[in-house]
C-alpha cells in the first residue's frame, strides 16, 4: 500500500510540474526558477538587508495575526468556552478560602511543568532554528544537581529555594550515600517534561504533511517539497546527506512504530523527515506521537541524563581539573579559574558565599551567561529572518500566479 501511495505521489508531483494551463513546461526550468527564488529569499536576513527584513517581518506578523484572528472568529464557541474557563480559574485563584493551599501547590507544579515543556518545544519546533535548550538550561541544571549531590552527600535539597538555588540540607548524608539512580530520580521530572516538549515540537511537520496528502494540494513548505523531490530521485541519490535522509524515510516507512521509536531514541537532526514521512504516508497519529513520546521523553532523555551525570560526577570533575593543570605552559593558568569556580559553588551550596573567596565574578560563569544571551539573541534573529523570508515567498507566489494567468 505504501509503495502504491508513493508511486501515485510521484505521478502527481510530476504532472503538477510538467503541466501549465494545458501546456507542458520544461521541468529543468521549473527547478531552476525555484532555486533562484530560494536563493533570493535566503539573502533576506538582518545582516544583509536589515530594512527589507524588518519590513517583511512586520508585514508577515500582521498577516499571521489576521489569519489567527479569522480562525478564532470562526470558532467562537471554543473561544467563549475558553474565556469562561479562564474566568473560573482566575476567580478560584484570587478568592480567599481553604482551597488556596491546593491552588498554590497546583500553581507551583504547573509552572514547573510548563517551564520545562516550553523549553522542550523551543528546542525542536523550529521557528527558523531551534533553541538548544538542553545545552543552555537542562544540561547545566542536571550538572548543578549532580555536583550538589556529591558535595552535600544528599539530594534532599530544601524547597524553597530549590530549584532556583540549591542549598545543602542542614543534615548532610554520609559519604558515599549518593548513587547514580538517586540523582536520576531527582531530575526525572524536569528531564521528562523537557522530553515531552521536544515530542510536541515534532508535530507540525507531521500535521503539515498529513494535511497535504489528504487534500492533494502542494503545501507551502520547502522541507516537504524537498521530501517529494527526494522520493522522485531516490535511485539517483549519491551524497551522504541524501542517503541518510532516504535511510530514515525507509526505516520509518517499513518498520513503522519501532522505526519511529528508533529514530526518536537517539540524537537525530533528521527526525523532522520522520514526521513528514509519517504524515505523508498517513501513519496514525497515536502511532507516530506515541513512539516519539516514548523515544524522546523516556529512552533518549535517560541516555542524556546518564551522560551528563557521569560526566559531572565528583571524581570525573576532579580528574578533568587535574588534567587541565597538567597541560604544559598554560595549564596552571587555566586550572585556577576552574578551581575558583568549583570552590565558589561549594560555598554557595553550604550558604557561605559571603565568606572565604572574594565576591568577584568568575570568568567561566561570565562566559556562560554571555553564551546564553548570544544564543537566545540568535534564536530571536532567526525567527525574524524566517518570518521575513516567508513573506518574501508570499510575494513570489503571487507574482508567479499572476504570470500564469496572463
UniProtKB/TrEMBL annotation:
<dbReference type="GO" id="GO:0016240">
    <property type="term" value="P:autophagosome membrane docking"/>
</dbReference>
<dbReference type="GO" id="GO:0034329">
    <property type="term" value="P:cell junction assembly"/>
</dbReference>
<keyword id="KW-0812">Transmembrane</keyword>
<dbReference type="GO" id="GO:0005789">
    <property type="term" value="C:endoplasmic reticulum membrane"/>
</dbReference>
<feature type="transmembrane region" description="Helical">
    <location>
        <begin position="78"/>
        <end position="95"/>
    </location>
</feature>
<feature type="transmembrane region" description="Helical">
    <location>
        <begin position="251"/>
        <end position="267"/>
    </location>
</feature>
<dbReference type="GO" id="GO:0005730">
    <property type="term" value="C:nucleolus"/>
</dbReference>
<keyword id="KW-0472">Membrane</keyword>
<dbReference type="GO" id="GO:0000407">
    <property type="term" value="C:phagophore assembly site"/>
</dbReference>
<dbReference type="GO" id="GO:1990456">
    <property type="term" value="P:mitochondrion-endoplasmic reticulum membrane tethering"/>
</dbReference>
<dbReference type="GO" id="GO:0017128">
    <property type="term" value="F:phospholipid scramblase activity"/>
</dbReference>
<keyword id="KW-1133">Transmembrane helix</keyword>
<feature type="transmembrane region" description="Helical">
    <location>
        <begin position="371"/>
        <end position="388"/>
    </location>
</feature>
<feature type="transmembrane region" description="Helical">
    <location>
        <begin position="306"/>
        <end position="327"/>
    </location>
</feature>
<feature type="region of interest" description="Disordered">
    <location>
        <begin position="1"/>
        <end position="37"/>
    </location>
</feature>
<feature type="transmembrane region" description="Helical">
    <location>
        <begin position="273"/>
        <end position="294"/>
    </location>
</feature>
<dbReference type="GO" id="GO:0098609">
    <property type="term" value="P:cell-cell adhesion"/>
</dbReference>
<feature type="compositionally biased region" description="Basic and acidic residues">
    <location>
        <begin position="1"/>
        <end position="20"/>
    </location>
</feature>
<protein>
    <submittedName>
        <fullName>Vacuole membrane protein 1</fullName>
    </submittedName>
</protein>
<dbReference type="GO" id="GO:0000045">
    <property type="term" value="P:autophagosome assembly"/>
</dbReference>
<dbReference type="GO" id="GO:0042953">
    <property type="term" value="P:lipoprotein transport"/>
</dbReference>
<dbReference type="GO" id="GO:0007566">
    <property type="term" value="P:embryo implantation"/>
</dbReference>
<feature type="transmembrane region" description="Helical">
    <location>
        <begin position="115"/>
        <end position="138"/>
    </location>
</feature>
Amino acid at each position: 500500500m505504501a509503495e502504491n501511495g508513493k508511486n501515485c505521489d510521484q505521478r502527481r508531483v510530476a504532472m503538477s510540474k510538467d503541466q501549465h494551463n494545458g501546456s507542458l513546461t520544461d521541468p529543468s526550468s521549473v527547478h531552476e526558477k525555484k532555486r533562484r527564488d530560494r536563493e533570493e529569499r535566503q539573502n533576506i536576513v538582518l545582516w544583509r538587508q536589515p530594512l527589507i527584513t524588518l519590513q517583511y517581518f512586520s508585514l508577515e506578523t500582521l498577516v499571521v495575526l489576521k489569519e489567527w484572528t479569522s480562525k478564532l472568529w470562526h470558532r467562537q464557541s471554543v473561544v467563549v468556552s475558553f474565556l469562561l474557563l479562564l474566568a473560573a480559574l482566575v476567580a478560584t485563584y484570587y478568592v480567599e478560602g481553604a482551597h488556596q493551599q491546593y491552588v498554590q501547590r497546583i500553581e507551583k507544579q504547573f509552572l514547573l511543568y510548563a517551564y520545562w515543556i516550553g523549553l522542550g518545544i523551543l528546542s525542536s519546533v523550529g521557528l527558523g532554528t531551534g533553541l538548544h535548550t538542553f545545552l543552555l538550561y537542562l544540561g547545566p541544571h542536571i550538572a548543578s544537581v549532580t555536583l550538589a549531590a556529591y558535595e552535600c552527600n544528599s539530594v534532599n535539597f530544601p524547597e524553597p529555594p530549590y530549584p532556583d538555588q540549591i542549598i545543602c540540607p542542614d543534615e548532610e548524608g554520609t559519604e558515599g550515600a549518593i548513587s547514580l539512580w538517586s540523582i536520576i530520580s531527582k531530575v526525572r521530572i524536569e528531564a521528562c517534561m523537557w522530553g515531552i516538549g521536544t515530542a510536541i515540537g515534532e508535530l507540525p511537520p507531521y500535521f503539515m504533511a498529513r494535511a497535504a496528502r489528504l487534500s492533494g494540494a502542494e503545501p507551502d513548505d520547502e522541507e516537504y517539497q524537498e521530501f517529494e523531490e527526494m522520493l522522485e530521485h531516490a535511485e539517483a541519490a549519491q551524497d551522504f546527506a541524501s542517503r541518510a535522509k532516504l535511510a530514515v524515510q525507509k526505516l520509518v516507512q517499513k518498520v513503522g512504530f519501532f522505526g519511529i521509536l528508533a529514530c526518536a531514541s537517539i540524537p537525530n537532526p533528521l527526525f523532522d523527515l520522520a514526521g513528514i514521512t509519517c504524515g505523508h504516508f498517513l501513519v496514525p497519529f497515536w502511532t507516530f506521537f506515541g513512539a516519539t513520546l516514548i523515544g524522546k521523553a523516556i529512552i533518549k532523555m535517560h541516555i542524556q541524563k546518564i551522560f551528563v551525570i557521569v560526566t559531572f560526577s565528583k571524581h570525573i570533575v576532579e580528574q578533568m581539573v587535574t588534567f587541565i593543570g597538567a597541560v604544559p605552559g598554560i595549564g596552571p593558568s587555566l586550572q585556577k579559574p576552574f578551581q575558583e569556580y568549583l570552590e565558589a559553588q561549594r560555598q554557595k551550596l553550604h550558604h557561605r558565599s559571603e565568606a572565604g573567596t572574594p565576591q568577584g565574578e568568575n570568568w567561566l560563569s561570565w562566559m556562560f551567561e554571555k553564551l546564553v544571551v548570544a544564543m537566545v539573541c540568535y534564536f530571536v534573529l532567526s525567527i525574524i529572518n524566517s518570518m521575513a523570508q516567508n513573506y518574501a515567498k508570499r510575494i513570489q507566489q503571487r507574482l508567479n500566479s499572476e504570470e500564469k494567468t496572463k
